Amino acid sequence: MRVLCAFPEAMPSSNSRPPSCLAPVALFLALLLHLFLSSQAGDRRPLPVDRAPGLKEKTLILLDVSTKNPIRTVNENFLSLQLDPSIIHDGWLDFLSSKRLVTLARGLSPAFLRFGGKRTDFLQFQNLRNPAKSRGGPGPDYYLKNYEDDIVRSDVALDKQKGCKIAQHPDVMLELQREKAAQMHLVLLKEQFSNTYSNLILTEPNNYRTMHGRAVNGSQLGKDYIQLKRLLQPIRIYSRASLYGPNIGRPRKNVIALLDGFMKVAGSTVDAVTWQHCYIDGRVVKVMDFLKTRLLDTLSDQIRKIQKVVNTYTPGKKIWLEGVVTTSAGGTNNLSDSYAAGFLWLNTLGMLAHQGIDVVIRHSFFDHGYNHLVDQNFNPLPDYWLSLLYKRLIGPKVLAVHVAGLQRKPRPGRVIRDKLRIYAHCTNHHNHNYVRGSITLFIINLHRSRKKIKLAGTLRDKLVHQYLLQPYGQEGLKSKSVQLNGQPLVMVDDGTLPELKPRPLRAGRTLVIPPVTMGFYVVKNVNALACRYR
Question: Which domain of life is it from (predicted)?
């Protein structure tokens, strides 16, 4: 509504009447005041106010990395694997001769391969060569056992292109294997939940009380390790073998006491001190549990407790996390083997390396349950693809990360935990797609909103390659399939691994991290001094 009025150039005199146009103006102002007061009486919501142009920029995170010296250097085999002795039960060991499985394992090389788990306590050794041949009578068990004695040997180096001798299985035999795997899966789960195991024939210290009905103290365990070392030294093949232990569980009060007694007696005997970690134990698990920062941070406290005891007796001794799982009792279906579990796994890798743990062994590469990297049909699960990207892109040198604008102002009595986690390493020097001096970031965004990161300092205006890993399919966070930069990740028809193609981002572009995702970002040609030499 517009009111038009022509005012005279000069007022005639004080006795003159006001111009006739002032009447409608007064009427309009009265009407406007009435409408304003009415609205204030009914709806008291504030009128929308435009934000200042620079206000949104407060959410921008500035990121820089110290490139002169690494803060840690971990083992070349930092991410390693475990096989549970349960695979021996009625022919599981023969599955390792699968060409597809060997291809998946080779993708995660170089790595240590640990053979251990609960069933190690129930193994019996018998000096009989291939007892399956003495059973007689050809049948499924006979063929499953009777391939060749050298199908799998403990000294096979998966990181060498020669690989290991692979038996060529007919399709019918592979089906027999999978059928037996399904049967044994139920048997092994029953054993785990009942906590009752049967002995096996084969050519956790602080869990002994629960599983064996007896206890072993730290001092006695240390003496046993010393005796074991003495027994191994005269044997040529074992004279230079490394010894690791005591492989304790969660470092609570009684476990710390066991470790203290062990280190006091045998700290110098072992090549590395080992322990195991389970994030979720003995309760119902929900998908949102994997996004809780409090759960992610439980590992950091355990690391400090272990380091305190170790450094008291043997300062600088290497420490290994020799077994890590998301949930106990074989894991939780559709959760431990889903995309959501990857947040725990990737954060574990970043946190361990940052705090100086030399090696982490993932339980398990392939077997029963749901904590593994490869399922019973030899299909890679989300954590496998995450591990593959880690192996391809991340080197052993850990770099310090500096951020601005990340932390909110803490409120009294409230702990602010980071839902945006950023780790930095020198890029793997074995990756010939990137020159030495490049840096790889891996980022976890647990926020329900996207986050913007601006590379600053030595990273400013550098070309970036993005490897964004997201769930694929309708299941969302529960999906057992993933996509890389929008393309689903699956093995090629010929049984080989797919090419991991990055998405190039133009130099100087702000990184936009989608909500509830994780990814790797290679910053090229940084010429970082810490990363130019091995």
Answer: Eukaryota
